[in-house]
Amino acid sequence: MNAPDRFELFILGDGEKKVTWNLDTRVPNTAIFTFNKEDHTLGHLLSSRLHKYSYVQFSAYIIPHPLLPSFDLRVTTDGSVSPKDAIVQACRDIVGELDQLSREFTKEWELKKIANTESRN
User: Fold this and answer.
1) Mean pLDDT of 78-99
2) Name one GO biological process term (predicted).
């Protein structure tokens, strides 16, 4: 088969970068970030998070080609924060929320195990 190995869709090769970015010279305070070996899951998550910040005027992502595992995220801010700093803040907030979700899930799972153990006795 000519299909690439599945791991090539998410493991970076030698010299590949996860994220590259360029300033958009046509629109002030705008940058385009290219996320390599990622898909709609991260694109939508980042774009949605960026919409929650008052200093972000625009954020959207596109998948240039459905067979290539990458997406471009365009971010425009009001100038009080750079687009790069907005992305970094969004990533920090997302990681914090996922950490909280993990702790809550683990706590509930342990309580369920305790409740099942007590009901058997």
Assistant:
1) 98
2) transcription by RNA polymerase II
Give the other-Cβ count within 10 Å of 105's Cβ: 10
> 51 lies in which domain range?
14-120
For the stretch 37-50, pLDDT in tens is 999 999 999 999 99
Q: Specify if 43 maps to a domain.
A: yes
What's the CATH number where 107 sits?
3.30.1360.10
- CA–CA dist 93, 53 (Å, integer): 11
Q: Domain tally for the chain? A: 1
Q: Does 111 reside within a domain?
A: yes
Reduced to 3 states (helix: H, G, I; strand: E, B; else coil), residue 107 is helix
Evaluate if residue 77 carries a pLDDT over 80. yes
CA–CA separation, 18 and 24 (whole Å): 20
Confidence of residue 62 (pLDDT cuts 50, 70, 90): very high
Closest CA to 46 of 19, 10, 16: 19
Domain-embedded: residue 94: yes
